[in-house]
Amino acid sequence: MKTKWKKVIISTVLLMSTIVLASCGKSSSKDYSTTGSGAGNYQGVIHKGHYRVSKARGVNTGQNSNPYNLKSFESGLTQVSKRVFSTKSYIFQEGQYLDTNTVENWLGRKTKKNPEGLNPAQGKKSNPNPEYVQQIEEQDYMQESGNSMKLKGVTIGIGINSEYNYQKKTDGPNYTKNISNDEVHRQGEIAAQKVLKRLRQNPALKDVPIVIALYKQAPDDSLVGGSFFAYSKNNGDSISSWHDLDYKTAVLPKANGTNNSTTESNQTDNDNFSNFKSQVQNFFPNVSGVTAQAQYDGKSLTGMHITVTTQFYSQTEINSFTQYIARAAKKYLPSGIPIDIKIQSDSQMQSVVYRNNGSDKWQTHIFESY
Amino acid sequence: MKTKWKKVIISTVLLMSTIVLASCGKSSSKDYSTTGSGAGNYQGVIHKGHYRVSKARGVNTGQNSNPYNLKSFESGLTQVSKRVFSTKSYIFQEGQYLDTNTVENWLGRKTKKNPEGLNPAQGKKSNPNPEYVQQIEEQDYMQESGNSMKLKGVTIGIGINSEYNYQKKTDGPNYTKNISNDEVHRQGEIAAQKVLKRLRQNPALKDVPIVIALYKQAPDDSLVGGSFFAYSKNNGDSISSWHDLDYKTAVLPKANGTNNSTTESNQTDNDNFSNFKSQVQNFFPNVSGVTAQAQYDGKSLTGMHITVTTQFYSQTEINSFTQYIARAAKKYLPSGIPIDIKIQSDSQMQSVVYRNNGSDKWQTHIFESY
Question: Which residues form the signal peptide (chains A, B) (predicted)?
């Protein structure tokens, strides 16, 4: 082969490689995709094939002695976000601006070493100041812009304690200070103002709308989490105005004589649930446990999570019980709201009967095994 | 009031009471109802408001060291029954004719004290005869007849061990005897003939069709249960003929190099599942575990139970992961068969994605909390 032709071939090969590499670069330059949409739910951001996890991942899991406060805080925060950022126009991203260190410092008490602590200094050990701020979570709301995702809004949830548990001496008896509703509101608003100001100092967060939502934590022994009571949508660095939220959570059936604000529930709802419960609990010779978490918006029941616990002795018992529960649910439980019924034994879920949000059809699924 | 009128009134009142009482008797004489029907499932018998549980309730739960053998035996027995007793014409009742004592005696070894034991005498302790028969279950199939339910058929499942574990000395090392496929079949047929003859001695079971189904138990360390390999439908007191069943169970992904009959699975199914698995397992920075139980009828995959285990750090992670899995399931998993995907952390189920038998639509449900 002549040298001239060799050169041409080599340059052609080189040119082609460059084109191939360039197009590779282009096709992989769209690094973002989403988890796919579900009815009324946000799509989530996937970056280079991996889910983009929170920069403060896991902080709140260590922050809640009552696991119901953790789950309900996070579900509730998404519920509040939907009021401002439509699931059709925005894509959800786990918080990328508050990292583990920052959130842990903010959740601490204010000391010389930790000037950023949102909770007051301890004061006297025999009569300490309560820790008010219990958890903080950031959610980012994005929109696609060419090949990348652009931040278009942030939601911050702040969980405020309704009681403070402490010991006067290490290993001494436990004491509890109740924190009044007014104080929960006041402390939430104070923390919100500080948080907003600090976020605005980050250039990336200078101009996006920041929603701050305030959550009242349930007591440690509650069988249902707390609820959000206010939110504000802010464009500047001071809180614009608060919108009241009237969410309440309750445990059903209502214990006789309980009548405090966090467990308040409509008498009719409670009666309906009690009818459902008595239909279900004597199905087997052994009694089944039947309890529910309920959520209210104002006086309207907006959803229920029911748990039925019993001892099963065969798969056929599970099948029959599940059918029976599906029938009882249709007959006794309120229509038009999302409800799920977990049917379990030994804390293992055996089947589920549910009606999703926006649907009028009950679904049943039994967990079998080959 | 005249005595005559008094008498008339009294007799009228008595007569009316009799009528009322009689009609009370009548209205409560229909003591039976059912659990309600589900698509392709049997209704179950409810008697006076309570589920009619098995007379041998709970015997099999103590009988299986491997819990997968228990669930798969019971689900599989119902699957076999559906071949003979249509879900449209028959109502399911838990077994009422074999009681706890009887089943426990039958499952024992044959001794002087227990002449009814279906398993051979122990023989030498250093080289014992295997126990072949591991579990027995009765299912009754009923039809409504006026105000009561009438027995129209019985199905008996018999589980035969594929291996026998024993110790030569108490607390000594464990030994295992493998039981060949031929021997499993042979022992199953021997036990079936004895069981059929004994059942026919009960006047209530003299004339109904009795289906006997034989199940090969999976080894104790298997991650999937065994499967049914034959059944017979009998009108007399000796086995008429055996129909082969070609069910097989397998665990996916298939471990490299495994190639025995109980874990045999189609290579394409395994590849599809591996694609699904690699899509899912690197979603989070922490790796997720993805395994499946598969059932085959001959060479056709007939269903899968998939379990995805990972550590979640927030409710939003659960929501995003569930959406992503639903999308991957549509893309990678085979169509036309029932599949469920349990998504769990710390052995607690967080959500489920499934397609039921006969449906072409994937369903998603996330377990939230208030």
Answer: 1-22
Are residues B107 and B207 located together in one domain of the fold? Answer: yes
Both tokens assigned to A229: 């009571």
For chain B, the farthest-separated pair of C-alpha atoms sits apart, in whole angstroms, at 102
User: CB of A349 within 8 A of CB of A343?
Assistant: yes
How far, in Å, are A54, A109, A199, B367 from residue A94 at the CA level?
5, 26, 16, 20
| Distance separating alpha carbons of residues A34 and A143, to the nearest angstrom | 11
From A223, A245, A267, give the residue that closes a domain: A245
> Among all chains, which residue has been given the structure tokens 């003979």?
B84
CA separation for the pair A159, B283 (Å, rounded):
29
| Residue of A292, A275, A368 lying closest to A330 (CA atoms) | A275
Q: Residue B67: in which H helix or E strand, if any?
A: helix B67-84
For B332, the domain range is 252-366
Contact A370 B320 (CB under 8 A): no
Q: Is there a domain that residue A302 lies in?
A: yes
In 10 A of CB A304, how many CB atoms? 23
Interface confidence, given as ipTM, is 0.88
The string of pLDDT tens digits covering residues A317-368 is 999 999 999 999 999 999 999 999 999 998 799 999 999 988 889 999 999 9
CATH number, domain with residue A343:
3.30.300.190
Asked if residue A24 belongs to a domain, the reply is no
Same domain, A227 and A341: no
Radius of gyration for the alpha carbons in chain A, expressed in angstroms and rounded: 26
First to last CA, chain A: 67
Rg for chain B (alpha carbons), in Å? 26
Q: Do residues A193 and A321 share a domain?
A: no
Residues 308-337 of A with CB under 8 A from B: 313-317, 319-321, 323-324, 326-327
CB spacing of B364 vs A57 below 8 angstroms: no
Structure tokens at B167: 């110790």
Q: pLDDT by residue (tens digit) across B284-319?
A: 998 899 999 999 999 999 999 999 999 999 999 999
B262 and B143 fall within a common domain: no
The amino acid present at A354, given as its one-letter code, is Y
Whether B19 is covered by a domain: the verdict is no
Domain presence at residue A41: yes
The pLDDT, as a whole number, for residue B14 is 47
How many angstroms separate the CA atoms of A159 and A131, rounded?
11
* Cα of B334 vs its chain's centroid, Å: 25
Residues B256 and B221 in one domain: no
Residue A132: pLDDT band (50, 70, 90) is very high
Closest CA to B71 of B336, B320, B195, B79: B79
Same structural domain, A135 and A234: yes
The three-point CA angle A143-A148-A149 to 5° equals: 30
